[in-house]
Amino acid sequence: MQSHLxxxxxxTGVSRETLPKLEGFVELLxxxxxxxxxxxxxxxxxxxxxxILDSAQIVGLTTPDCRIVDLGSGxxxxxxxxxxxxxxxxGEVIMVESTGKKCAFLQTVITELKLPAxxxxxxxxxxxxxxxxxxxxxxxxxxxxxxxxxxxxMAKGATALFFKGERWQEExxxxxxxxxxxxxxxxxxxxxxxxxLKIEEAHRV
Length: 205
Description:
By secondary structure, this protein is an alpha/beta fold. The chain is built from eight helices and seven strands; from the N terminus they run ααααβαβαββαβαββ. The chain has helices spanning 3-11, 19-36, 41-45, 47-56, 79-89, 100-113, 143-154, 168-175; strands at residues 67-71, 92-97, 117-121, 134-137, 159-164, 179-187, 195-204. The protein has a seven-stranded mixed sheet with strand order 3-2-1-4-5-7-6, sandwiched between helices. A hairpin with a 7-residue loop joins β6 (179-187) and β7. α2 (19-36) packs antiparallel against α6 and α7 packs across α8 (168-175).
């Protein structure tokens, strides 16, 4: 791993002990991606800077020993990144994903790297909400729909941490038609225009 990248990862709050786990995840992703249609070659070329580091910035916004549910986990960004960190600082990550091949990949990584995580296969709307501390989602849906997905967990006290791009303010405006949100926009470490939307409360309008 390049030293500047390692430094950037450590600055997000990722522990040094987590780095070998992240390298193991990337190796498995590269090995299985084409067979399982996980991520394109262009995305793989920038996996560390664009995807791993971007996902890792959530670590500093959560707490040790916390439980996290990641909605629409796909290839495990950010779910598996967070699970790698949880293996060193405690906690558990629950990943909800509807596609069977992607669920199989997530479970393979969890098993091979011995991560404190589990996979729920099925549509997000059908998942039974558990008590968790945080909800994450990356590149999943517009904000009004994301809040609808997350609300059953938020009603149990969870805080949402959603990755959003340059249209995040427009999405907040759209969401205000349906929801009153207590939120904070945290500037992204990897995008000049993106944010992490931290939503602590959501109430239907």
